[in-house]
Design a protein that fits this description.
6-stranded antiparallel sheet, 35% helix, homodimer, 139 residues
């Protein structure tokens, strides 16, 4: 039984100063919440000291939204978990605009699938097996 | 640059009454946090009314821990995101014992990989392409 959809987003080569600015991340979360009509139940924000990044976690009626930023690597990661159907949000355009990210990766996973773990962890070995079989067929 | 490891866990065919019991989930989180020596920065818990489930979000110095339960489907999902190396936790044994789960799936993802999204979303098409190639080789 699929109980929700989770998006895992990796934004890389971002502007480090923006990744240290909690207000930038809060504003970004505000846009996501407004655009997708999400309802906030509670939240935790933490700015790590000095040159450190920001952690934001928001509990939603529809599940949760999280971010962690790593200014030292120019990277930010996000999770958006929704138990109800939602349109895809414009992660790529938004993170390029708001965090000056050069690359944005968006991965979508259906949660609640009892075979999720084995399917993905078998990914590399299956590819490898099939390459061997294909090579065998060619030979 | 890999910035952290995330485990996505699906526990299915659980005891629905346990999935409605916030104290059971809080105790489970307590075990994880103690066993893995994690440090809590803040948390949000929410019990949905009546027959509804529980949402728990804990911000950690090491990133975050989240759960959502769906008593109506006998399912609970968990995310544990750690930016520092941690031993794998005994999800399968623990969720079978604490939530009476019949099946537990654990998926591990390295966060911060700029190609993560395209790699996984191409998973099915790559498998399919390689099957076609293998079939072509056999013919």
């Amino acid at each position: 039984m699929i109980v929700g959809t989770e998006w895992l987003i990796e934004a890389t080569n971002c502007n480090a100063a923006l990744l240290r600015d909690e207000s930038v991340l809060r504003e970004l979360f505000g846009s996501i919440i407004t655009d997708l009509e999400l309802k906030v139940l509670g939240e935790v924000w933490h700015k790590f000291p000095g040159e450190g990044g920001v952690t934001g976690l928001v509990a939603l009626s529809e599940s949760h939204l999280a971010c962690h930023t790593y200014p030292e690597f120019g990277t930010a990661t996000f999770n958006l978990y929704c138990c109800r159907t939602r349109a895809a949000w414009g992660w790529e355009e938004s993170l390029k605009a708001k965090l000056e990210a050069k690359t944005v990766s968006v991965m979508k996973i259906e949660r609640g699938d009892p075979h999720l773990g084995s399917r993905i962890s078998n990914f590399k070995s299956e590819i490898s097996d099939q390459r061997s079989q294909a090579a065998g067929g060619d030979g």
